[in-house]
Amino acid sequence: MSESWTFVCASAELLPGEMKTVFDEVTGTPILVLNLDGQVYALEDQCSHEEFELSAGEFDATAGTIECVLHGARFDVRDGRALCAPAYQPVAKFPVKQEHGGWWTRDDRG
User: Fold this and answer.
1) Which end of the chain is more exposed for a tag (fewer CB within 10 A), N or C?
2) With contact defined as beta carbons under 8 Å apart, do 30 and 44 qualify?
3) Under a CB-based contact definition with an 8 Å cutoff, are residues 66 and 43 in contact?
């Protein structure tokens, strides 16, 4: 578990409908940060069906979903839950905070 927060970007750089990938510097975990209507969420940047980065997929800001380009699995960006086959397990969701004019996240798994 990482106790240190990873800087994502300046608050103004992540607009609604946009996403950005960062790496937790302590755990080496790739994290996908998404802005859904001004609310920012962070998920592990890896499909739970097969090891493939979700950031390569399409972020549907209207539906609040991210789709893996490999096999079409979709996940809710708000909580990471799998919405359709072939994925049945959620992707890890991480905390996000806005501080010092920027967005921050971290891998908080134990």
Assistant:
1) C
2) yes
3) yes
Strands across the sheet with 96-99, in order?
6-10, 102-105, 96-99
Residue type, 81: R
The CATH number given to whatever domain includes residue 17 is: 2.102.10.10
- Is the pLDDT score of 1 beyond 70? no
Residue 110 counted as domain residue: no
Q: Which residues contact residue 90 at a Cβ distance below 8 angstroms, ignoring those fewer than 6 apart?
A: 48, 75, 79, 80, 81, 82
Q: What is the mean pLDDT of residues 30-56?
A: 97
Does residue 91 sit within a domain?
yes
CA–CA separation, 8 and 25 (whole Å):
11
**pLDDT at residue 92 tops 80:** yes
Q: Does residue 89 fall inside a structural domain?
A: yes
Residue at 69 is within a domain? yes
